[in-house]
Amino acid sequence: MTATSNRPAPLVRMRGIKKQYGQVYALRGMNLDLYQGEVVGIVGDNGAGKSTLVKILCGAVPPTEGETLLDGEPVAFRSPHEARLMGIEIVYQDLAVIGQLNVTRNVFLGREETRRILGVRFLDTRKMEQRTRALMSRLDPGLEERIRLNVENLSGGQRQSVAIARAIAFDPKVMILDEPTAALSVEKVELLLALVRKLKAAGLSIILISHRLQDIMTVCDRVVVMKRGSLVRDLEVSTTDVGEIVRLMVTGGDAAAGTGAPPLHLAPTSAPA
Amino acid sequence: MATRLRASALTARGVFLRLRGSVVVPLLSLALCLAIFGTLAPTRFLSAANFQVVLTQASVLAIVGFGLTLVIISGSIDLSVGSVAALAGIVAAQVAPGAGPVPALLIGLGLGALAGLANGLVFVYLRIPSFLVTLAMLTTARGIAYLLSDGESFVVHGLPILGNLGAYPTVVLIAAALCLLFWLILNKTPTGLYIRSLGGSEHVARLVGLPLDRLKVTIFVFSGLAAGLGGLVLASRQGAATPNLGASLELDVITAVVLGGTPLTGCVGNVTNTVIGAVAISALSNGLIIVGFTSDVQMIIKGIVLVLAIVVALERSKIGVIK
User: Is A112's CB within 8 Å of B190's CB?
Assistant: First the structure.
């Protein structure tokens, strides 16, 4: 965290986030800062609490304890919808698209363009299609002429483009990508990472959860290592390497400076599902 | 992609998949009905007067079916439509002589909406599957209809729905107007899109923050309103309201919706399909009567038709486990 102390106030600041499921702690006092225009990678073994942390940030799960500040203001989202209204978007690993609806419908789902006729709100499909085409020309030009196809007829990479288009359609502040490269071919991974850089250049702040450390090293400014629901280390990517990150993920930092995660014998034996 | 779709269309399975949800199947069923009964009873079945009978009967099925179409597209089911129709019809017939036609109609519609609201609230807030909630309403509303009417029949006075406008029975016009209204709601408004989204994936609909609880209640109110209107039409068409009005109507209506190409798996379908399904089922019922099948045989045949309709319409790939 010292690495970021000389910067302006963070866009997102999560402090002391705890999440308890019954007797199991998924998070035990986690901190996270995200600055404007920054790409932060979150890494950790299964059960480290990465997904729980971003689910709390995007409003899908309420924290048991802890505080989230957005632009310095405390926020407590009761639903993903509220988080989206405040400019926090997430692209889920399963993409959360509806296969039997077309590309445009999925991109605008829940935030349709409408126009009033005799006081009744009607869908403004033409306007939504124009905007979808414009989005796709930036994201995935192959989809530009396929916006009327149902998403179930698209490839995995194209579906991800639809999910990302939905996330960036309304100029969010923060975009969370949960394991975005897990289901992609090598070639598509390169395209996705290029896109992340482009969005970062446009000022978007991005959180990237990934098991693929080479992806993290390629596009992230900082990497946050988690283990058993706690922060192990918050590192500038330029000052570390894959070897150190792996060592921190495995040891929880004990072998290094003895900071970060609580002693392992205090951790619950069962990891959250 | 286009080539892949075209290639798959050449296989039997591809043809089957492409037919599902289209109007081809209900139109073929209708044509088959017309051909069979037209051959067996050409003069009686294929007369202008009989077509009007079929269309009038189809209008009732369609009116109730439009509401049910929304319910089914949202991924739920409403089994209570026949009983709700009876409740609306019999109460309207009872109050019409004293209160006048317009208040009677409004009371009937109001009762339909109320029954739908009860269905929706129990479904959403007690978290009970819709087929069980509406199965309970099926017996509850029917019971209330018997209770309020004391088991009596009421001659319908002063319900203006039955009359003719020129050469057309008003029922057909009401059905046409309602079809347009429900088509606009389903295909052109956010509400309709959310109904499809709910049927497509409730999980995703929740994640993107659609107002699902309110939406579900609204859907069942629509269905209750449509069933209520159907009951008013039935009562005035028959000239009398009996507490067993619309008995097993739900079966005919579900068959009409599913045969029309709105599968029970949700998201897909349309009210225009339901129109064709309703005409096909009415032609079938009418033809069976004209050809001289007794009501027991009619029931058996309708049961088989429902199964066949579901075989064509159901998307097994979306279900995974069938239980």
Answer: yes
**pLDDT tens-digit readout, B120-134:** 999 999 999 999 999
Check residue B162 and report its DSSP letter: S
Model confidence over B99-153: pLDDT tens digits? 888 899 999 999 999 999 999 999 999 999 999 999 999 999 999 999 998 888 8
Q: What is the pTM of this model?
A: 0.87
What is the H or E stretch that residue B222 is in?
helix B212-238
The answer to whether B189 faces chain A, any CB pair under 8 Å, is yes
- B322 — pLDDT class (breaks 50, 70, 90): low
- Among B193, B207, B267, the residue with its CB nearest the CB of A112 is B193
Assigned token pair, B277: 């399904």
Inter-chain touch B200–A96, beta carbons under 8 Å: no
Residues of B in contact with A96 (CB under 8 A): 201, 203-204, 207-208
What confidence category does residue A33 fall into, taking pLDDT thresholds of 50, 70 and 90?
A: very high
**Residue A27, H or E segment:** strand A24-34
Q: What is the dihedral of CA A50, A53, A57, A61, to 10 degrees?
A: 120
Cβ atoms of B126 and B223 closer than 8 Å: no
Tens-place pLDDT, residues B257-312: 998 989 888 999 999 999 999 999 999 999 999 989 998 998 899 899 888 888 87
Q: Which residues in chain A are contacts of B202 at CB distance < 8 A? A: none
Which conformational region is residue B154 in: left (phi greater than 0), alpha (psi within -120 to 50 degrees), or beta? beta
**Residues 6 or more apart whose Cβ sits within 8 Å of residue B310:** B258, B264
- ipTM score: 0.85
| B40 CB-side CA count, 13 A | 15
d(CA B169, CA B59): 10
Which amino acid belongs to residue A188? K
CA gap B264, B270 in Å, rounded: 12
Residue A25, SS3?
Answer: strand
Contact B233, B63 (CB under 8 A): yes
